[in-house]
């Protein structure tokens, strides 16, 4: 079960991080809105970097959860 939760957190982290990165890049470099994140929240471009960090934290948390479960199964 923890392995499934780890994969789920990791997958959500990839989506959230990618959307934050796309939103930041589109606002900063092109002055337009890309992705779906701007339809959910209206943030300044620097706040989308915080969304990227949240995505990275979810990825790291999911990987650690999976690795801990795999180590318990081996032992």
TrEMBL record:
Q: Where are the transmembrane segments?
A: 12-30, 45-63
Q: Keyword annotations for this protein?
A: Membrane, Plasmid, Transmembrane, Transmembrane helix
Protein name per UniProt: Secreted protein with PEP-CTERM sorting signal
């Amino acid at each position: 079960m923890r392995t499934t939760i780890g994969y789920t957190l990791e997958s959500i982290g990839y989506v959230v991080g990618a959307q934050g990165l796309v939103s930041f890049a589109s606002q900063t470099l092109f002055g337009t809105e890309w992705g779906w994140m701007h339809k959910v929240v209206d943030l300044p471009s620097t706040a989308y970097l915080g969304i990227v960090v949240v995505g990275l934290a979810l990825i790291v948390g999911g990987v650690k959860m999976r690795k801990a479960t795999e180590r318990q199964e081996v032992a």
